[in-house]
Amino acid sequence: MFSRLIRGWGKDKMTYPVMREILTVCFSCYHDDFGNSVDEIVSYYFDTNVLSRADARHEIGSLLRISDDEELKTTLEQLAGDHFRPEPWGETWRSLLEKLLRHFD
User: How many separate domains does the chain show?
Assistant: First the structure.
């Protein structure tokens, strides 16, 4: 019963497989294997990964359509688990997504 009161509870983590992989692998504590900035890491990811840019663009757009920042935060924290937080990078969840989306322009 209480789970219904928690925003984002029960959302399928595999709804966003590209974002889950980016957050839990590329931006994990081993991120320096992939780069030291958001730009370097995202470039590395798309140079070495088979998942399409169209899928990533779709997932990021879908996440950015979540207008409530708390719901967005809850959703992305579920995807990232304990592997990533945007604050040490000087970002919020929304600003990180916007920065990632700029890689497609």
Answer: 1
Domain-located, residue 1: no
Q: Which of 77, 101, 78, 79 shows the shortest CA–CA distance to 87?
A: 77
Give CA–CA dist 11/1, Å, rounded.
15
Q: Give the residue from 74, 70, 65 showing the smallest Cα distance to 97.
A: 65
Which structural domain, as residue segments, surrounds residue 60?
A: 15-102
Does residue 95 form part of some domain?
yes
Q: What is the pLDDT along the chain (105 residues), one digit of tens a residue?
A: 444 444 444 555 568 888 888 788 777 776 566 777 778 877 777 777 766 778 888 999 999 999 999 999 999 999 988 888 889 889 999 999 998 888 766
- The answer to whether residue 8 sits within a structural domain is no
Q: In angstroms, rounded to a whole number, what is the distance separating the alpha carbons of residues 41 and 95?
A: 16
- CA nearest 49: which of 22, 27, 80? 22
